[in-house]
Amino acid sequence: MATYTLPSTEARKKLLSIVRDAGERYSRYVITHRGRPQAVVMSAEEYESWLETLEIMSSPSWMKAIAQGEREIKQGKWLSFEEVVGRKQRSRRRP
């Protein structure tokens, strides 16, 4: 994942390739106007991920639960994946 910075005049000329690159390679493009960053182009998937992160971080109850989980990990209070889901998962057969 790379981040590129380019002026709006160049971004205008290369918009389609910028959009494709952001979507396929997860590249980010910082678009400047008069030398100052004004916009960012990134994949829709990455954008949605950022929104989810912001939603979690703005929720006091979620942040409290995360902090509690981190304290429990430091105290050695955790379960392995196998302990949570069982030693061996059975594959489902189709009828």
Low-confidence stretches: none
Average of pLDDT: 92
Strand content: 15-25%
CATH superfamily of the largest domain: YefM-like domain
* Helix share bin: 40-55%
Counting structural domains, the number is 2
Shape: elongated
Structural class: alpha+beta
According to CATH, what is the topology of the largest domain?
Answer: YefM-like fold
* Radius of gyration using CA atoms only: 22 Å
Oligomerization state of this entry?
single chain
Largest sheet at a glance? Answer: 3 strands, mixed
Topology:
Blueprint: E1 3-7, H1 8-13, H2 15-25, E2 28-33, E3 36-41, H3 44-57, H4 60-74, H5 81-85
Parallel strand pairs: 1-2
Antiparallel strand pairs: 2-3
Can you offer a commentary on this structure?
This protein is α+β, with helices and mostly antiparallel strands and 95 residues long. The chain folds into two domains: 3-42, YefM-like domain (YefM-like fold), CATH 3.40.1620; 46-78. Helix content is 54%, strand content 18%. It contains five helices and three strands, in the order E-H-H-E-E-H-H-H. Strands 1-2-3 form a three-stranded mixed β-sheet. Strand 2 (28-33) and strand 3 form a beta hairpin. The longest helix has 15 residues, at 60-74. The chain starts with a strand and ends in a 10-residue tail after the last helix. The mean pLDDT is 92.
